[in-house]
Amino acid sequence: MTMYEPYPVPELAREHKRFRYSSLWTFAKQDLRLLAFLLLVATCIGLGVGYFWASIFIAFLIFFGFQLRSLYMVNEWISNRPYDTPPNLNGIWGALLFNVYRAQRQERIVQAEMVGLIDRAQSSLVALNEAVVLIDDLHQIEWCNPAAENLLGIRVFDRGHNILSILRQPKFIEYFNHIDQAPDGIKIKSSIFDDHYVQIKLTRFGEQSRLLVAYDVTRVHNLEQMRKDFVDNISHELRTPLTVLSGYIETFTDQEDLNPRWKRAFDQMQSQTKRMNALVNDLLLLSNLENNKTIAKNQIIEMPSLMNQLFDDAQAYNADYGHTLNLDIDSHCDLIGSDTEIASAFSNLITNAIKYTPKGGIITIGWHDDGVHGYFTVQDNGIGIDPKHLPRLTERFYRVDSARSRATGGTGLGLAIVKHVLMQHGAYLDVISKENEGSIFKAVFPKERLYQMM
Predict the structure, then answer these.
(1) pLDDT digits (tens, 9 = 90+) for 130-181
(2) What are phi and psi of 318, to 5 degrees?
(3) How confident is the model at residue 328 (pLDDT cuts 50, 70, 90)?
(4) Which residue, 77, 140, 253, 451, has most beta carbons within 10 Å?
(5) What is the distance between the alpha carbons of residues 125 and 119, in angstroms, rounded to a whole number?
(6) Which residues are in the Histidine kinase domain (predicted)?
(7) Around Cβ 279, how many Cβ atoms within 10 Å?
(8) Contact status, residue 58 vs residue 72, Cβ threshold 8 Å
């Protein structure tokens, strides 16, 4: 029988079971009865032999001798045989032994349950196809399951080694030291198998301990790469024929003697060709953003100049809509990033607000900061967006109202482009909207992206 298995109820426990809910006085009476018996015998003997007080003294000595013997047996059991059945004692010491043994037995039952739970949890982790690694406060490996060897090359005898001495990829080391910058984890190339990719997610627990979970994403990576290659290739292939079509349509449209019936058809063809060109350009831009093309993200963008340029472009675009445009700049901070990408993202937010606000609306473009974050905002008083659509707004080709999007010539990629631009600048898009009350699109930049002249 192991120390974690439940012990049978000992004889002593059965004998004292009836005292479980009794008061201490019930147990003390056994000692008092013994003391009274000894004093009675001592009194009779003392009065008979003429040494009354000496007999009483001897009776107390005998009583304390019994108590010292019980104390010795209790100490012997606790010190040398704590897992054996306790000695059978009466009185106060018997009650003490019973309560200690009962508490000890309950503790062993709880321990056994905890060990069983840990064993089941460990067995479950061992059976997983995903790699699971426990890392202590010193960055050393505490435990790993068999899948960790297949996916990450971490073996059982690597326990006690620093995780960074085994997974040495610079991308992983950067992620390990700055977990919060990649809340969804990172994807790295496998060091075990060629052309394999592993998604790694770290979670903090305790003080500085970490739980690492990794799984093979090779198939998903390959499918995603196929999709990107297809979009990139088809977009390039469409550009040339669209350019040719657009040129011929424009040539025919400019002829003065063109039949009005044909002119209307050519005008529609030209409109749809422009829309397809816009779609192709957005697809190529999105493809470049997703493929992480090396575009410098460390330029200092003068925000007053950019905001005024965007405002002028917005006024030109607004000519057919008749909105009231406002510009609100109350920040002295500039932005660090790619000027072309940032301008493209901000322009998308502005043109969206203009296109999807009924004529005669009010649109305010702003740049603000609170010392911790920088905020580019576009606010309108249009028809707003149902909250159920907000989580999916940045998905490519997702439309709140398909008919309305087609009428305005939207490609369905604008907010997807905005999302990728912001992600590459450590920023995110926050949307606040209520139906029939308008919307606020807010690009939130971290403090590290703000630049202020001293």
Answers:
(1) 888 888 988 999 888 888 888 888 888 888 899 888 888 888 888 898 888 7
(2) -80, -5
(3) very high
(4) 77
(5) 10
(6) 233-449
(7) 19
(8) no
Which of 256, 290, 324 is where one domain is finished? 290
Identify the three-state secondary structure at position 395.
Answer: coil
Q: Which domain holds residue 186?
A: 128-216
Q: Structure tokens of 28?
A: 């003390």
Extract the tokens encoding 232. 């990139």
For residue 238, what is the domain's CATH number?
1.10.287.130
CA atoms of 286 and 280, how far apart (whole Å):
10
Dihedral of the CA atoms 44, 46, 50, 51 (nearest 10)?
-170
Collapsing DSSP states into helix, strand and coil, what is residue 12? helix
Which is nearest to 88 in space by CA: 161, 164, 10, 20? 10
Structure-token pair, residue 377: 């905002």
Whether the Cβ atoms of residue 141 and residue 133 lie closer than 8 Å to each other: yes
Nearest one of 229, 231, 266 to 247, comparing CA atoms:
266
**Helix, strand, or coil (residue 175):** helix
50: left (phi over 0), alpha (psi -120 to 50) or beta: left
> pTM for the whole thing?
0.53
φ/ψ region of 156 (left if φ > 0, alpha if ψ in -120 to 50, else beta) reads alpha
DSSP class of residue 7 equals P
CB atoms within 10 A of CB 378: 23
Longest Cα–Cα distance in the chain:
154
If asked whether residues 207 and 224 sit together in one domain, one would say no
Let me know if residue 328 belongs to a domain.
yes
CA pair distance 352, 408, nearest whole angstrom:
10
Q: How far is CA 36 from CA 29, 42, 48, 270, 380, in A?
A: 10, 10, 18, 118, 96
pLDDT tens-digit series, residues 29-70: 777 888 888 888 878 888 888 788 888 888 888 888 888 888
| Joined tokens for residue 129 | 């196809």
Locus of tokens 């493209």: 344
How far apart are alpha carbons 159 and 139 in whole angstroms? 11
